[in-house]
UniProtKB/TrEMBL annotation:
A Pfam family per the record: DUF3077
InterPro entries noted in UniProt: DUF3077
Protein name: DUF3077 domain-containing protein
Length: 89
């Protein structure tokens, strides 16, 4: 077995999401210890929702869906970024 197959990589808990004026207060951060495979699966699922919400928001002229999809996409990106850090070992 290769090292990659025997090691379960986990998130490192360093990725934070900032929003708003000045970007001084983090709204959330990814917790350390989440299996990277799970974090990536969840990010993919969130991006599917982002896609649907964005289309619905545009077609139905509902800007609140666009904003919600913006925040969900930020969460998905944070999950992916932190999983990437964890997989670097």
């Amino acid at each position: 077995m290769s090292h990659e197959q025997t090691t379960e990589y986990t998130t490192v808990g360093k990725t934070r999401f900032f929003q708003g004026e000045g970007h001084t207060a983090a709204l959330f951060r990814i917790e350390p210890g989440i299996p990277c495979r799970h974090a990536r699966e969840q990010a993919s699922e969130l991006m599917g929702y982002v896609r649907e919400m964005t289309i619905s928001g545009l077609m139905d002229e509902k800007p609140e869906l666009i904003w919600a999809s913006h925040y969900l996409s930020a969460l998905a990106k944070a999950l992916m970024d932190d999983a990437e850090l964890g997989m670097r070992g």
